Amino acid sequence: MLSMKNMKVGSRMIFSFGIVIFLMLGVGFVSFQMLRLLSKDINDIRQDFYVKVRITSKIAQEIGNQGQLSRDMLILHGDQLEALAARISASRDEVRRQYDLLTPMVKSGRGLELLGAVQGARAEYVKVLSEFLERVKDGRADSAKQFLNEVVREHRVRYASTMEDFIAYQEELMNKASVDAESKANTGVRATLLLSAAAITLAIYLGRALSKSVTLPVKAAVALAEKVARGDLTTIMDGYSGSNDEVGQLLHALKRMNESLVNIVSQVRVSANAIAIGSSEVASGSADLSQRTEEQASNLEQTAASMEQLAAAVQQNAMSSQTARKLASDASAVAADGGEIVGSVVSTMGEIAHSARRVEEIIRVIEGIAFQTNILSLNAAVEAARAGDQGRSFAVVAGEVRVLAHRSAEAAKEIKSLITDSVSRVDRGSELVADAGRTMDRIVEQASNVSSLITAISLSSEEQKSGISQVSDAVQQLDQVTQQNAALVEESAAAADSLRIQALRLSEAVASFRLPSKMLAPALGRCAHHT
After folding, report:
1. Which one of 60, 239, 320, 418 is at 20 to 30 Å from 74 when CA atoms are compared?
2. Which Gene3D superfamilies match (predicted)?
3. pLDDT in tens, 32-68
4. Given its phi and psi angles, is residue 78 left (phi above 0), alpha (psi -120 to 50 degrees) or beta?
């Protein structure tokens, strides 16, 4: 106890709780070790001994089933006999699987010895059972029955006896592990109770010692704090020289707190007066700001009305642009149709010119024929003159042919002249029509450009409409914000007035503190300076 007085409170608590924690750790460690050993024993029982017994019991059950099925085979025939043979085969496969699980689990000397005996008996039993099945399969019922009763049953009994020995050994090990686990549990409980009792006894002793070393100095600190709580700041503290631990440091801190409170209260008195004056000025400024805010809100309302009118005008402009765009599109379509018609005329004129040139070629052929006919008629006249009277009629015909050839040549010349003039006129007309086609193409292009321009104007009008709508929304939001600001300004004025009232109340509250006389004069001087 005397040594604890010279220790820090933190060191006392660490020392006391450290001992208790150490004992509790000891209790926990002992409990953990006991639980670990118990868990191991229980795990051995559950996952080793019990599993071995369960597997061996399963094998014994299958052997019993095989015996029953073997007896049934002596009284059944045909498909039923084959079904029983299949069931015996499945049972033997199940026994084999169980042995595959059991064999790796047996590791001790006695267990391996007993398992070896079981395996030997099993091998002999499997051999005689196979012999029995062969006899049944061959139809030797009497021999199979005698073999079953005299040989197979004897080996099955020996096989079952070895398995019972193995099961008894595993049950003995399981009972021994259970007794060991119970003994360890009792030992762990006793050790835990003893250590817990020691920890509780030591904790009570250390708690009382720690309480006495702390509560007495704390009572002195509480008395000082109660004086401060009553507003009595006139107490001059001499400190606590009993110890230099945390409680002594607390009392020194309370002394500094008392001195700081004296300074703070004196400053608060001055500040409360200054706040009252400042809040009055803030209230006046807030009222002026409220008036200007209301004027600004009125101006924003007028601006919003103007923006609505502008939006209506832009909307009308957009509608007109859409109408003009439709008209321009229709004009462009008409011009395009005219261009197609002119193109058709150009094509037709070209075909006419081609036909005229073809006629001109035919006329040249006719002229050639007329020329040849004229020559032939001249030759015929010459020959008729040579013939005398006999060729006179032929000469008349030749003359008529020459006259006809001459007329044909004249007619061909006139037709050629007309065709040449027509071809010239058709060529001129083709050039004019081609010029008209190019002009129509330019008209179509200009109409398309005008339609694109009107479309751009329409889109621009839509964008202007959207922009003006956004500006109008922004102005309305600004109007709402301005109105909210006006409300906030009014609230600010009310808050400033409330602050002034609270400052007065604060001054009254601070006046309830009793200050040392040496601190009153400077505080009163600062109050007079601020006022």
Report:
1. 60
2. Methyl-accepting chemotaxis protein
3. 777 777 677 676 666 677 788 888 888 888 888 888 8
4. left
Bridge partners, 410 (sequence order): none
* pLDDT tens profile 167-214: 888 888 888 877 877 877 788 788 888 888 887 888 888 778 777 767
8 A C-beta contact, residue 8 and residue 243: no
- Helices 153-229, 109-137: crossing angle, 10 deg rounding: 140
**β-bridge partners, 514:** 232
Q: Please give the domain boundaries of the chain with CATH numbers for all domains.
A: 2-223 (1.20.120.30), 251-530 (1.10.287.950)
In Å, how far are 21, 199, 202, 504 from 18, measured between CA atoms?
5, 11, 11, 55
* Residues written for the chain: 531
Helix pair angle (153-229, 246-387), 10° resolution: 110
φ/ψ (deg, to 5) at 236: -105, 115
**25 C-beta neighbours (distance < 10 Å), count:** 13
Q: HEC states along 259-288?
A: HHHHHHHHHHHHHHHHHHHHHHHHHHHHHH
Q: pLDDT per residue over 210-246, tens digit each? A: 777 677 667 767 776 777 777 777 766 665 555 666 7
Average pLDDT over the chain, rounded to an integer: 76
Nearest-angstrom CA–CA distance, 359 and 526: 129
pLDDT in tens, 282-304: 667 766 766 777 777 677 677 77
* Whole-Å CA distances, 418 to 11, 359, 365, 421, 432: 139, 11, 16, 5, 21
Residue 18, phi-psi category: left (phi > 0), alpha (psi -120 to 50), beta (remainder): alpha
Alpha-carbon distance of 480 to 473, in angstroms, equals 10
Residues with Cβ < 8 Å from 336, sequence gap 6 or more? 444
In whole angstroms, how far apart are CA 273 and each of 39, 101, 501? 77, 94, 11
Span 517-531, mean pLDDT?
57
111 — pLDDT class (breaks 50, 70, 90):
confident
φ, ψ for residue 524, nearest 5 deg? -65, -35
Report the predicted TM-score, pTM, of the whole model to 2 decimal places. Answer: 0.33
> CA distances (Å), 258 to each of 189, 231, 234, 331, in order?
57, 10, 9, 98
Going by C-alpha positions, the residue among 447, 435, 446, 423 that lies closest to residue 343 is 435
Of 136, 132, 113, the closest CA to residue 124 belongs to: 132
Percent of the chain whose pLDDT exceeds 90? 0
